[in-house]
Amino acid sequence: MADLEKQEKRIFFNTEECPVRNVVAQIGDKWSLLILFALVDGPERFNALKGRIEGISQRMLTQTVRDLERDGYVNRTVYPEVPVRVEYELTDMGKDLVKPLYQLVLWAETHQDKINKARATYDKNAA
Fold first, then answer.
1. In this predicted structure, what is the pLDDT of residue 4?
2. What average pLDDT does the structure give for the chain?
3. 58 touches 50 (CB < 8 A)
4. CA dihedral 47, 50, 54, 57 (to 10 degrees)
5. Which of 33, 74, 97, 125 could form a disulfide with 68 if both were Cys (CB 3.0 to 4.6 A apart)?
6. d(CA 127, CA 7)
7. What is the pLDDT of residues 20-58, one digit of tens each?
8. How far apart are CA 123 and CA 81, in angstroms?
9. pTM of the predicted model as reported, rounded to 2 decimal places
10. What percent of the chain has pLDDT over 70?
11. What is the DSSP letter of 8?
């Protein structure tokens, strides 16, 4: 226990090397998790994906999928058909990522009532 008390507290730098800011913040935005979990079921076309994520705009889905593709979590495949068919699917890294994220989702489901009560209590006391 004494060794833990002597350890320096971690500092989180605002740099590309900080995994919290560089990786976790990206996947923890409003839409990325929903897109990743929608793709767990297999490849999806853009409009099908949009239909599964209520409230997301076409612009936001486009941007978020591009960000996920850039980070290596999602593959975008264009099929040379008429009309052109585009599908999105998880990469191996994306499939790896959703495993621990699923635990977070289960935790959130388990604790949602407690969180809502804590928020209500806080809001009542802050008013």
1. 57
2. 90
3. yes
4. -110
5. 74
6. 39
7. 777 787 788 889 999 999 999 999 999 999 999 999 999
8. 54
9. 0.79
10. 95
11. P
Instruction: Identify the CA nearest to 68 among candidates 45, 39, 48, 47.
Output: 39
- Decide: residue 119, CB within 10 A, 0-12 exposed, 13-18 middle, 19+ buried: exposed
Residues in the chain: 127
List Cα–Cα distances, 76 to 46, 54, 112, 113, in angstroms. Answer: 10, 21, 34, 37
| Amino acid present at 85 | R
Amino acid at 92: D
CA angle 50, 53, 58 (to 5 degrees): 40
- Which residue intervals of the chain are DSSP H helices? 2-6, 19, 25-27, 32-39, 46-52, 58-70, 92-126
Q: Which residues pair with 87 in a beta bridge?
A: 45, 77
Q: Which pair of tokens denotes residue 23?
A: 């990786």
